[in-house]
Records
---
Amino acid sequence: MRYVFCGIGGSGMLPLGLILNHTGATLGATDRSFDQGRSPEKFALIQKMGIPLYPQDGTCLHEGDTLVVSTAVEETVPDVQAARRLGCPIVTRAQLLSSLFNTAPQSLGIAGTSGKSTVTGMIGYVLKEAGYDPTVMNGAVFRNYEKLNPLCSAIYGAQGPFVAEVDESDRSIALFTPSIAILTNIGSDHASVPELQTLFGAFVDKAPQAVFNLDDPNSAKLIQAYKGKKATFSLNNPDADFYAQDISLSPMQSTFRLRHLQITIQLPGNHNIANTLCAMAALALYGISPDVSSKFLQQFLGVKRRMELVGATHNVTVIDDYAHNPDKLAASIMALNQFEGRVIAVFQPSGFGPLRNFRKEFVESLCLSLHDDDVLLMSEPFYAGGTVDRSVSSQHIVDDVRAKGRNAQVFATREDCIPKILSIVRPGDRIIIMGARDDTLSEYAQALFIRLEEHFTQAPSEKKVQA
């Protein structure tokens, strides 16, 4: 049997394809970004790793193939139509992943609306470096391993535990039965908080062991009903099993004390200390002591596009970040605002749907985290094709943010933001590029950094810039 992945370039599809490819399964793949010539280096690496790529026109499907799709793949896509015509089975990414996850001897499932990829990366990195031979399915590339493999969002193990971040956006979290359930937090993202509490509550209740965040009241409400063995973490509650004290933050790393351990991680912000505590709690339930896990976590470089430093020039820093929901936006901007300097936030929403469903939450989050002199620049949302309700756009968010006294402006495209940035940038600024789903955002961040270098090199030193 051959698996054909429709949309292999997606952050959830690619690591699953890489895991199956490693097991010796026969694969084929399509992606409309490949057809459009987007991210050519990425697709060249996919082919180099032995996964053949075909046009997304349905011609690659043959009788006996199984088509693998994500929830982003619509019925009108030619691959889906060809599979229907040929009688090929169609399975979702979550169905295939959960079948691998649930049959593993031990499984750790990381759920929550923020921090999943980082916590998954932390747990997977420790298990691998400590010799436990894990299989890890992540939504982001491990920066510790990207020089060996720029597509390393998956780790392949033979006999060890299966570690995966699980998705609530399409309710597929219900398919997973973990040995250890890890819940990072619950906030507005793909559904209302009460809906998410029901989904996440059912997820953790199936697990004999679980990790909870005492700092998140929406998650803490689930603890009382939980009957299994639990571990808790907190930055504020000394009753937590994993409680951070003596916190010290710097622009690109964080230090804290956990009991007798003094720990420095190579990641900024209180939210990453929380992620570290969460990972250590899960690893402790698995049987790895904090003394051991902390040693490896201090070497962990993070995952791609999570507060990733692109470069610094003339005391201006460019950061690439995956933030796309209200909680993530606030966490990233607030982490930067712990230190001196203005934040210029360039935000490309991941779709029109999130803006429509959580308009109020986006506005509240941005107004809470942005300081008076910070600047928000928004482009219209990422659009990969298909039918979509565009009744709420970036213009609506910007209008609401401006009405609350913050400095915000909207542009038709993210490229249109660059002249504005060059006209206002000044030493000490931190420019953060935020958004999800669009792989080319990293390319955009790199291109912006190059333009900044050129701008400062060509401009006279005494040139005044507009505030």
---
Amino acid sequence: MEYDEAVAQLRAAGCVFAEEEAQLLLADGREPLALLTRRVAGEPLEQVLGWAAFLGLRLVVAAGAFVPRRRTELLATEAIRRLPPGGVAVELCCGVAPVAAAILAASPRAEVWAADADPAAVALARRNLPAGNVVEGDLFAPLPATLRGRVDVLAANTPYVPSDEVRLLPPEARDHEPLTTLDGGPDGLALLRRIASVATEWLAPRGHLLIEVSERQLPTALEVFGSHDLDPGVARDDDLGAVVVTGQSTVLRRS
């Protein structure tokens, strides 16, 4: 397989970064034609390669897994910035655990946990977070009770595409990633509401909840946070096209 031929096929398939993708596919070391065929058929590049770049890390992904987006790097950097030395961090809806892995890479002495309901995602997360704690189950359910009231940073990239807009997503996402990682309910904020409603039970005093949202969802997300003892705020990165709603717990005493 020649480079120019690979570029031509990728361009014809609509790949915007055909040159860069061709280089990655040809440098992979496996059968380039088979990889190119998968990519031209619409499979996400990261699933074809078996890895995704995220904040300088190379994370393991696989067919059928949600691919970490670059915009989620803002969620990770905000989590890292807020985590005290030796603190406790949790990533919910972790997928392959990009945020947890980035936190642990930046703060090796932190206590880092990640949770997801999908067994396949959990298996990949355990490969990306070998020194962390990855548990399987719905949101907070699989976390040990000993974390209650101790979490300094709670981060989540919840699915936030409104249900009736999933069909508008690019085929790469719609056809190759689990629906549960994309569909966020009627307004895209179903899981955000569930997390915010109990977050302060798990957060340490002055602990932080961080959830990625879209710009148009921000007013509602801020209102939800504010109604659950969370002092709401916003972090943005225009270059990444990323928005994170933040909330610092105002619950200072616990019964």
---
Amino acid sequence: MQNLTIAAEPLRFKIALDPTLSEPGQAVSGRLLIFMTAKTKPLDVIEPDFLNPEAVFVSGIEITNLEPGKSIEINPDVLSFPKSFSAAPAGGYQVMALLDTNHSYTYDGMGEGDLYSNVVKINLPIANTVQELILNEKVPGKTMAVPENVKFINFESPALSAFWGRPIIMKASVVLPPNYDKSKSETYPTVYNVHGYGGNHLGPLRGVSEMQVAMSAGKRPEMIYVYLNANNSLGHHVFADSANNGPWGRALTTELIPYLEKQFRMDAKVSGRFLTGHSSGGWSTLWLQVNYPDVFGGTWSTSPDPVDFHSFTGPDLTLSTPQNFFHGADGKPYNLIRDQGKDIMSFEEYARLERATGYYGGQLASFEAVFSPKGDDGQPMTLFDRDTGRIDPIVQKAWGKYDISRILQDNWKTLEPKLKGKIHIVVGTADTFHLDEAVRLLDAKLKALGSDAKIEYIEGRTHFDLYRDGLSDRIANEMYAIARPKAKIAATK
């Protein structure tokens, strides 16, 4: 690792582009991020640490037309997290620059085509010099071995294309069961799986080979799995129709699913279409089941994003006089991330980090892209002021139509017979993002309505270990029991 000059003034960086990374005269643009950490272990890359947010300084700024061999000087204090770089205590640090060329870092980190520098050492304080970081590496494209019986779908949606005024492609990975080709007539129940925030339709394929082995061995029923892609330029669109993202729910239910059912031997009926997903995928699938009860035969939604806006992981978004998004009336900050019972990161800290890393695709920006009206500038209206946490009452009111708990209560007379036996929610009591709190509120409301929804709390489980001990297999068997009530079901834990 290279050592840089010791100095003593507010930190400044000169960012240069290695000529070998771009054709002569071909400039690059994007979100320039600078990371700095006092961690002593030599690092190949530096990234935010959500379990120790104070450990990594992050600065972000938009740059345009940086040409090969030229440089730009950056003041990292203009927009930084958790505080200004100049406020960092004296000592040794590691620093790195990254150019997010397609504004996807906030959603899923470093990606194909991003440019980054070597990690270098500096010492603070610094005087009379600007430290240079050279963007001299490019993130390569990812390759993956595609399991057997996997088909990739690229479907041009008429509804979404009309909304955007350009072709919009819906992507999915279809996983066919091991014995699919042995018959020309047998149909299969179909599971529509929606990934969580930061994912796509390709990530789940890592576990497909193991799943197909379990199917072949009779430990798991043979079904068709459709891994949907819910990632777009504004983050995770959750398959909800919105003013900013377009009619994703309508496009799925009236366009993509009918198309798939013509291409593959799916059951093509309500009792053979199932939903499951985790986190943002958990919210997506519950939303789809509630809003399209005549399309789907049941959802198994795990650790869903807030399903009752009385607790949007802290703030109550149902009050006529809005709360502050960052803290309660007592001034105590709302915690967003916890680990082993310890509060790790507040909502305010998360919002400030997201603002530094970039506007496009962040978790909070994703919520606003789905739930908020479109502003006069053509962008999603922000729910809250990023500096003060003050909630905009007009935007909060607009969010109300996406409150699943409220939708169920207001429409229960119509929805009750259509949702009988169809709602299953599983969440850990130690969910990393406190998502169990909104689930409990929804649970109480459903019980009061007389619903037969099955809501399960797994003691001590977090957001990331919920599926330990065979939950996925159990869900598969519960689905199959509905689609094939006379079939013999494999025993699960």
